[in-house]
Amino acid sequence: MASRYSIFSLLRESLRGHRGWTPAWRDPEPRPAYDFIVVGGGGHGLATAYYLAKNHGARNVAVLEKGYIGGGNVGRNTTIIRSNYLMPGNIPFYEHSLKLWEGLEQDINYNAMISQRGVLNLFHNDSQRDQCVRRGNAMHLHGVDGELLNREQVRKLLPMADFDNARFPIMGGLMQRRGGTVRHDAVAWGFARAADSLGVDIIQNCEVIGIRQDDNGVMGVETTRGFIASRRIGMACAGNTSRVASLAGLRLPIESHLLQAFVSEGLKPLVPCVITFGAGHFYISQSDKGGLVFGGSIDMYNSYAQRGNLPVVEEVCEEGVALFPCLSRVRMLRSWGGIMDMSMDGSPIIDRTAVDGLYLNAGWCYGGFKATPASGWCFAHLLATDQPHDVARAYRLDRFATGRLIDENGSGAHPNRH
Amino acid sequence: MRIPCPHCGPRTHEEFTYYGDATVRRPSSSSPDAVAAFYDYVYTRDNPFGLHRELWFHQGGCHEWLVVERDTRNHAIKGAVPARDVFKAGESK
Amino acid sequence: MSSRLAQGGMINRQQACRFAFDGAEYSGYAGDSLASALLANDVRLIGRSFKYHRPRGILSAGPEEPNALVELRSGARREPNTRATDVELYDGLQATSQNRWPSLRFDVQAINGLFSPLFVAGFYYKTFMWPASFWEKVYEPMIRRAAGLGRAALEADPDHYEKSWAHCDVLVIGAGPAGLAAALTAARTGARVILADENFALGGRCLAERRTIDGQPAADWAAQAIAELRSLPDVRLFPRTTVFGVFDDGVYGAVERVNDHLPVPPEFQPRQRVWRFIAKQTVLASGSIERPLVFGNNDLPGVMLAGAVRTYVNRYAVLPGRRAVIFTDNDDGWNTAADLVAAGGQVAAIVDSREPVIVSELSRRFPEIQAIAGEVTGARGGRHVESVEVTSRSGTSRRLDCDLVAMSGGWSPTLHLTSHKGNRPRWDEERSIFVPDMLPAGMRVAGAANGDMTLGEALVTGFRQGLTAAAACGFSGSMPTLPRVTDESTRRVPLWRVRQASGKCFVDFQNDVTADDVELTAHEGYRSIEHLKRYTTLGMATDQGKTSNVTGIALLAQQRSMSIAATGTTTFRPPYTPVAMGALAGHHRGMDFRPTRYAPSHRWASELGASFTESGPWLRAEWFPGPGESAWFAPTCREVKAVRSAVGLCDVSTLGKIDVQGPDALKLIERLYANNFATLAVGRARYGIMLREDGFMFDDGTAARLAENRYLITTTTSHAVQVYQHMHLCHQALWPELDVQFVSVTDQWAQFAIAGPRSRELLQRVLDPQIDLSNQAFPFMAAGEVRLRNGEPARLFRISFSGELAYEIAVPGHDGDSLIRALHAAGQDLGVVPYGLEALNVLRVEKGHVVGSELNGQTTAHDLGIGRMLSTQKDFIGSVLGRRANLIDPARPRLVGIRTVDRNAKLAGGMHFIPQGAKCSIEHDQGHVTSVCYSPILEQWIGLGLLTRGPERHGEKVMVVDPLRGAEALVEVCSPVFIDPEGARLRG
Amino acid sequence: MADALHFAFNPGRLGHREGAPGLVLQELTQFTLASVIACKDQAAQAAAAAQRAFGTSPPMAPATAAGNALTFIWSGPGHWLALGPHATGAVEARLGTAFGTHASVFDQSGSRVLLELRGPRARDVLAKGMSIDLHPRAFRTGDVAVTTASHLAVHLWQVADEPVYRLLVVRTWFDSLWRWLAASAAEYGCEVLAPAPYASHTA
Ligand SMILES: Cc1cc2nc3c(=O)[nH]c(=O)nc-3n(C[C@H](O)[C@H](O)[C@H](O)COP(=O)(O)OP(=O)(O)OC[C@H]3O[C@@H](n4cnc5c(N)ncnc54)[C@H](O)[C@@H]3O)c2cc1C
Ligand SMILES: NC(=O)c1ccc[n+]([C@@H]2O[C@H](COP(=O)([O-])OP(=O)(O)OC[C@H]3O[C@@H](n4cnc5c(N)ncnc54)[C@H](O)[C@@H]3O)[C@@H](O)[C@H]2O)c1
Ligand SMILES: Cc1cc2nc3c(=O)[nH]c(=O)nc-3n(C[C@H](O)[C@H](O)[C@H](O)COP(=O)(O)O)c2cc1C
Ligand SMILES: [Zn+2]
Hints:
The complex is a heterotetramer of chains A (418), B (93), C (988) and D (203). By secondary structure, chain A is an alpha/beta fold. Chain A is built from ten helices and 19 strands. Chain A has two domains: 26-81 and 86-96 and 98-108 and 184-254 and 345-417, FAD/NAD(P)-binding domain; 118-178 and 255-342, D-Amino Acid Oxidase, subunit A, domain 2 (D-Amino Acid Oxidase, Chain A, domain 2). An eight-stranded mixed beta sheet of chain A has the order 5-6-4-14-15-16-13-17. A six-stranded mixed beta sheet of chain A has the order 8-2-1-12-19-18. In chain A, strands 9-10-11 form a three-stranded antiparallel beta sheet, with no helix packed on it. Chain B starts with a strand and ends in a 5-residue tail after the last helix. Chain B has a single domain (2-88), classed as Folate-binding fold (2-Layer Sandwich), CATH 3.30.2270.10. In chain B, the strands form two sheets. In chain B, strands 3-4-5-6 form a four-stranded antiparallel beta sheet. A two-stranded antiparallel ribbon of chain B has the order 1-2. Chain D has two domains: 7-29 and 111-197, Probable tRNA modification gtpase trme, domain 1 (Gyrase A, domain 2); 31-107, Heterotetrameric sarcosine oxidase (Alpha-Beta Plaits). Helix content of chain D is 19%, strand content 37%. Chain D is built from four helices and twelve strands, in the order E-E-E-H-E-E-E-H-E-E-H-E-E-E-H-E. In chain D, strand 4 (64-66) and strand 5 (71-76) form a beta hairpin. The model of chain D has no long low-confidence stretch (mean pLDDT 95). The chains are: A alpha/beta (418), B alpha+beta (93), C alpha+beta (988), D alpha+beta (203). Chains in contact: A-B, A-C, B-C, B-D, C-D. At the A-C interface, helix 1, helix 3, helix 4, helix 6 and strand 13 of A face strand 6, helix 2, helix 3, helix 12 and strand 30 of C. Zinc ion binds at residues 5, 7-8, 58, 61-62, 64 of chain B. Flavin mononucleotide sits between chains A (75-77, 79, 184, 263, 287, 289, 291, 293, 306, 333-334, 336) and C (540, 544, 570-571, 573).
């Protein structure tokens, strides 16, 4: 049993050289068979395993991770959480997620530094304002918080923003105060530790390289550590979804794209909340360590390379400096990339597949980190009951065929434009 | 990345607009299974881990569509040919 | 007191530079770095550490510096976290210490040190959870204030930046002996060579070491090499230029610090310039970085890297301490001892952790130095090292007084750039270093960066790699005769950690990660090297672990009883050293963030005092305030009324225009548009809609048939580029068999709307009087070529967005200004008014025309009430998927008009529809309001919206709500066409 | 008269003031310009037609070809810009007659601004916004690049080894191009000459 974390246990351990801590999770050998297998030790996979154990009493669950847990997108995203969506299928789901975030640390006994510092979407012209209003109103109708800030209110919050010499002057912004950031790595580790303590086997360095099927559906997975049997398998492998799904002969409405992100050198507090710039694709916040964490748009071409090219770096810096001219002398410390499965309408998929017992959790595009707890919650529900969870009902695969699309920004079937 | 435009020579990919998979073919609208065929054409993708044939438009240059063969694992480009040639030849995958 | 040596070094003693640190005035010389100048003035305490606020000094002499970070300059030019070791000294330089309060010497937060047993790796994940609400209110603000390093400037950066491209055959990165050698052999073949080095002086360690090449000082050899390179026409030298990233296909990002060595850049010059080097071949000659040793209090000011000590002594003529202890696990440490002695310094002892036989062998070579086979277990001192505790192999301990500890844990190849494209270095067990393994295409490595550590090897590999790189570009040359160089030995027996250490043993100095933290982390189950990095933050500070990563890996490997090779490195990522965002932004900031596109009438409109707004890249007039009119309301109402009662002028040139010719022009157009064009006669235009292949609306516009095989099509302003690309895709990839030619003529034609009952009259005054504009001759939707009064050709279209009798006239772009002036002048007595986007919007809402807020990519033709236009006779883009049941479901929100029931009530875009009496919640959401305006004609607010089953509900009253702003109104649902539904006016 | 969309582009010296300017720049006015696009599989016939009518074949690769009264500037496969001095009479009609059914012609005379750039730093200035290689080994007199400068679409070609370049840019973007060009040339000093008719500059 893992040691409980608290200021008292920390004090106690500090007095004895921290020798009493137990590993946050075990490092077990895979068993020959499990009731449930979750492929992918990212945020979604680990959360799924945790909720399978916690909500559905499953005790024989494995998470298979090809590398180290948290090494995928959960460990490389810009950590923004929010529920300020527009489309009917999305708001309830993301709001469910936000509510789970709000109680998560106590639930899993791990400080993930959930920081509801606010998410502010800036707008720069009348039509953007109307779109923000439409979205803000949709949020209100769902009982979700949102405020429209005018130019002066934004100026007060962000005195360093460019209000006087901007190509696209700031008119105002839509603020969701309950939005914010979460320490990305801690989410993976916290869920892993909590799942492990409920008996879930977290198996790292175990890549799924085959999916075995018989007439009754899925039988198990071939892995780099041998065959592991299970009749219920959930895929939560983010940017790698198409590859894993293809092992079962599935072709999906998904392309893998590369998104870069950036962090500056550590600074004293400068950026008070999460800000998205409306005159480009740029978002920024400041981490607890002081680094400005920011990003922009994807690199636009299909990629599995986890690294991007210079034009996007330049473009993101142009946007940053256009928004906050004082960033000009702030230095970019590091850039990195993650592979995201961009779906054809920009919204996720949590559903059964054509193969019995094989389930899909995918298509998170730019925005699946904020979904982590709800995604795990709903995917666990689907795996355990074979029924979609109520708040994830819209995320069915067949929507592409029927036309019941959830296209937040109206880009159509162009994954790179979402 | 530098895309070897067969018309203009090698150019930075900033000059190009990306469209995506060049292996899918627009089905006939009059066939009985047209809806299913168009669903497949518009929505589903191989999304290969490796060589990918893809359409790029030389927006900042000759205004020609190219079919570029590129490895999605490391971005290495094998070549680029005018889309006109590929599609005229009625080449499938 | 000064530590400046009386002679030597590469500083210019004729040119003194005054500078200030924390307000105190000092003096140094041109050629100094800030760090060397501080050391010369005996300033040792430079900063405070991140977590424990421990005193920190100068560790290194280069970009690997983790400790000596300062805020450079002040006000809008303040640059936090600047490495004193990289800053070139200039007269008037001002630097301030950071991350301390109230002062560097007395930093209150140094108290953190007392609680350091609590602040172990990952402590915050274990606590601050109770009570939940305290995180945001109490804990987090506290942590945030304590964290961070320097303070960013708050004002806009006054300096100017730019970017440039440079192509070459061979790019050489690093101008040490290996890089200079490579550049020489490559350049001598006639290849185009670029040589970049981040330092302000080229030469690398030639400038720092007392070595000879062919009998002359290495620095002189370097100077000659540089002179030869300068004399060659196709060689470009870039000092002060860091290559920060390797990207695909030979693209290298570099930043040149053009004027950072001056207080302010000279007029017209940039502060920094980002280069995109495009190289066929690259020789990486980036040298190596020395590793610190891990012993107690190894972070005290006065504990330095041994190689850095040599740099200060030899290059800057500074003695960083009077009495030194050297601590080494390799032969190179001994050179430091020798150099210190040669410079007149005192060496208390060299402590070598290796076998006594090795130590005594070396002692024979360096008889003047007292050697101890053993370890330094801890350093002592308050804000500066005062002594060290040394334990010899035989177990005896003693204390040695000293004010400098020079430590050497061996050198790591600077191989970051070999890994930016995802390749991992390989552990070389024999030499205990990571060396480059797989390389990016076109790259080769020379010198210390490749593990070829000695000067002789650096020269040989440099010459050879330069030559092979040039050969790969098609240039041939030959190897020069190899110079004779001083002997060097690089033997090492790695000492990853002093076991019996007293005090904290730092691995990552900047992020305060200790050897104990590394071990605790592994113990807690964070066993991957990546987990180690993320849990402890080792290697995540501004130095990215340049001095700490390898040690961290080795300690983790030891703890896990794994090999270093299997443990592996973390991922190297650009930039190699941090780069100012302003440099990467370059020119594109402020008003130049994005280009601005001006409509042909812009000058005229601005002379009339128009207010402008951006519409995509364009600036467009939004209204033309009349005398005494201020805000948008009055001018807009006046403009609308004038159009409805007299005549108005509006620039519509921003619409995309594509001229389509060729025998198959009609075929292409038929497939692009969803509605029928086969029946369009020459001389006529038609409204057309385009779908995306998924069946949703893409764009709308008109197509005019100018001749049998010629059409002019217009697109919306915002989709002009996309439609043009789409047409090319259709032509080149879908239907390459079509014989059709088209080109964008958006800029060729300045186009103006002339709208209102008196538009015909006005138009007649500028056109050739022969032209018959009567309804018979030129009816609604007619299109054709005409002549102006002055004989110049123009195109005329009788199309109407406003619903009035209206025309659009087009002339070549550069004639637009004179035509709009002529129209304006000719219509004065007719009451002509210019109108802007606001009035245009009112006019089209009154008429129920859709624009971007309705054509938002989420709507179908069916939603917008134009579903009937979709042809069932032909194949067109979107024809199949557009028929999916969900896209034509009558229950979808569909276009309606709305008018307020209370004539004084207001409407706003983005309101949602809720049935009267229903609760304001999502189950009752029935769509939203897309566009609104105050109609001066109807004298009330009206709007368009997408309402569930809208067209079936005309006459019904529903609520529109805006809970976001606390507004609501009751509206009546009606036809979206408010004015002249029969279309009599536009046909008039 | 100056172009109505030139807002900050005036003759005179700007940037660094001492010594000879690094860049000398002149707008050339009064030209006709047309897009000529060969019909399907007719590029060779179109070229032959041009040879007959104008004494030169439009280039099949990125280059210019000067004929009598017209210069063809490659713009894409089977696509050229035909540039000539301003002449009365519709350019489409004149060229249309020459090309017959082998090519379609589109008047573009009002769409672009034409600049000539010379001076010792002309290459360096252009390199600040153009990603193509302008080194004399890579780009020579007679070569054309259809590319971008500071993200704006341009046609650039070299007319003399000195080097002297000509640059065509869309008129409605010109001001932005000029703001970049002026900023880029400032450190070397830039002399803007009074505009001259295109004809006077072309042999
Ligand atoms: C740069 C960047 C910024 C982002 N910013 C945000 C943001 O601000 N807010 C937000 O909400 N979202 C953001 N996202 C998106 C978000 O990170 C992802 O949507 C989300 O993390 C995906 O879910 P996950 O955590 O389960 O994925 P991952 O962490 O990627 O987990 C998938 C795991 O599956 C493993 N796997 C794959 N294939 C196999 C196999 N065959 N066998 C075994 N294991 C396998 C992978 O190794 C990986 O660990 C961002 C993404 C990126 C790349
Ligand atoms: N005796 C030993 O143990 C030992 C060990 C290591 C090095 N050395 C000495 O080091 C030297 C090795 O020569 P070398 O030429 O390989 O290395 P070097 O260190 O002399 O030169 C490397 C140069 O590369 C530059 N550089 C590094 N990264 C850069 C980047 N990203 N962009 C631009 N510039 C960059 C540095 O500023 C430096 O000038 C020899 O003199 C050798 O004696 C000796
Ligand atoms: C929110 C966030 C903050 C980060 N802050 C830092 C940082 O301060 N220093 C650093 O070196 N890297 C930082 N990183 C980047 C990581 O080092 C790493 O690049 C990223 O997790 C991707 O992993 P990879 O580079 O190993 O592929 C941060 C990453 C994220 C997601
Ligand atoms: Zn091209």
